[in-house]
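stage 2 :: seqdesign
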């Protein structure tokens, strides 16, 4: 189904996985360690492309032309400013974002147990 042809706007949220993608690998809470393979691949992608986690996460989401709006949460004005500045610096380099999972226990924050 082509949602765009049907006039449906696509909005995405939790693009940083509630901040997990922005954390140092060593800071990721214990309950997420079972997905260590993904954290290691994410760290490797960042190192290989010499980019920050913020830059890579934004670049990935912005690579989808189908997305109309991005909803982000911030805790401070400085975080918002950093995100907006990063968006302005997104470059045209192509990365291989070969890090994916359909595991709802990871990608759906509402499934996370507190």
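stage 2 :: out
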């Amino acid at each position: 189904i082509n949602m765009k042809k049907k006039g449906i706007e696509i909005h995405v949220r939790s693009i940083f996985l509630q901040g997990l993608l922005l954390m140092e690998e060593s800071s990721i809470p214990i309950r997420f360690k079972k997905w260590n393979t993904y954290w290691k691949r994410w760290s490797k992608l960042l190192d290989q492309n010499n980019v920050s986690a913020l830059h890579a996460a934004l670049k990935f989401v912005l690579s989808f032309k189908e997305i109309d709006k991005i909803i982000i949460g911030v805790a401070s004005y400085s975080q918002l400013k950093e995100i907006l500045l990063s968006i302005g610096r997104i470059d045209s380099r192509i990365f291989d974002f070969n890090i994916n999972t359909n595991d709802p226990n990871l990608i759906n924050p509402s499934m996370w147990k507190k």
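stage 3 :: structure notes
- The beta strands are 11-13, 69-71.
- The mean pLDDT is 89.
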